[in-house]
Amino acid sequence: MKENKFTLKETFTVALENYKKKKFLAAESLCNKILSIDPDHFESLVLLSNIHAVNGNFSKAKESLTRANEIKPNNLSVLNNLGTACRELGNIKEAMNFYEKVIKFNPNHTNALYNLGIGFYNVKEFKKAKNFFKRTVEIQPNFAIAFASLANVNVELREYENAISNFQKAIEINPKLAGAYNNLGLVFRKLNDYKNAISCYEKAIEIKTEHASAHHNLGAALKEIGQFDKAIKSHEEAIKYEPENLANYYYLSELKKEILDINLKNKIEKIIKSNQSTKRNSAFGNYLLSKYEQKSKNYEKEINYLIKGHQYFFESKKEKFKLGVKYCFDDVMQINEGAKVEILGKKNDSEIKPIFIVGVPRCGSTLVEKIIGSGAKFIPMGEETAILENFINEKILEKKSLNLGDVISVRNELSDIYKQKGLISEKYDYTFTDKSLNNFFYLELIKEIYPKAKIINCERNILSSIMSIIQNNLTELAWAHDIDNIFKYFNNYLEIIKNYKEINPNFIYNLEFEKLVNNPEEESKKLMKFCELTWDKKCLEFYKRKDLISKTASNLQIRETIYKHSLQKYLPYKKYLAKYGEKYSWFN
After folding, report:
1. How many angstroms separate the Cα of 229 from the Cα of each of 86, 201, 222, 264, 360?
2. Using one digit for the tens of pLDDT, what is the confidence trace for 516-561?
3. What is the helix (H) or strand (E) element at residue 341, kind and residue range?
4. Is residue 254 located within the same domain as residue 366?
5. Pick from 266, 301, 330: which residue ends a domain?
6. Which one of 266, 286, 305 terminates a domain?
């Protein structure tokens, strides 16, 4: 018996050596040999689970760990690894239970704390995730990945300064952490700090040449600042390292239409027919195929590809988008009807003069903002900041009430956030733009919080706006990936604007996109007069600016002089949407 045990020990040593040399097949064979003699050989079960995990077979890893756990129920490493196996299999709740068992035995078990943070991050409970990541780095201050994960949570909580600090700590600990540089670049880009964003992406690529995501993000940043030739090269590099990722071709095609040839079409069709194609890849594949049909004027086929593309894209972000749809059709309507601030004294005045540009996507709002911000007087521009919406939601959650509190306190808090974004400044006479289009939900609050605010409602031919939304992938708008929801959203918007104008007829300025592009000087002068700003010929020469930034689908158009848009362009599509005219009279 002693000789047999010694032989098993020797065999396991050889198995372990093979594992360390990445000879996983040999290591697995030896572990199975040991277990055929001694089914309760704990070390072999653990090693076998590691081999299965390395090979991506987490079902088998879980089986081996479960047997090991039966032998040693309180082994913390086994419990922690069981949690990880469950997490990889999508059993988040079961995974969390295993991690919590580890913490009960050892409250300072950094791996379990870190894994709990990952678990809560995956289920979008970011504040809980933040607490576990913070505990992890307090116990193990040289844990680079934990700092990077904490930074990712900071981003989700919009704690951007903390995110920058924690990404920098991760990089300080491990300067070769390409992912941290890439994600830090995303934060700088969100803050419109393009110099640092581009530097971070380039550093990520320097560390890891094949980092396709960094190449893509670099391309996107370069596009947003108008450096299209460089952006094209970056997107081509992303394709080089991820040739099966159809999103890379989609974003390149926006800058280089000639890539849409028959060879690429055949490749797209082959990829999306593959069983291995993800929902996201299928989405971008269908978007790309719609471009071919649009070029050939096969409008029905184009719309069918677009519908499929949007369905796949929605499915790829299903949990997040389901919440987004609920918010924009249920929660925000309650906020629109019931949210209020208290005006405690008679005097409710403020020197701050924001210009809120509202409407629906693809209504010409980017053009309007660039006209306002390009006159003789410099006006800071806040393109799609979502500051007001985020603030209101956080206040409602904090107070558990639609009463946001005293108007002066609310204004001071909100203004501090605008100041952090570089939008409010005495130097610019406290005037700035906020082009978060869905601020039309908060018109009454805007009027109370900022009595000197200006509201510009951008209107465009409805068919043109709707078709432009369908033809573009507005990645962050949950409702924009379903035609029923698009029409429902438009209906809510039109109702809110109509009702508000009946009560406050002079508070909103209606700007018609078609009038603006047909008579730009006349209409821009009216616009600037409403904003109490001086008109200057520079207002119409915005495209000459070197500091022009745009993250919207209008990025290419605003770098050209204003040109007329034909209403005929979208008429061929109307018959495919005709049924919506039966429900919504405004579509007729």
Report:
1. 46, 17, 9, 21, 31
2. 989 999 999 999 999 999 998 988 887 787 766 666 655 566 667 7
3. strand 340-342
4. no
5. 266
6. 266
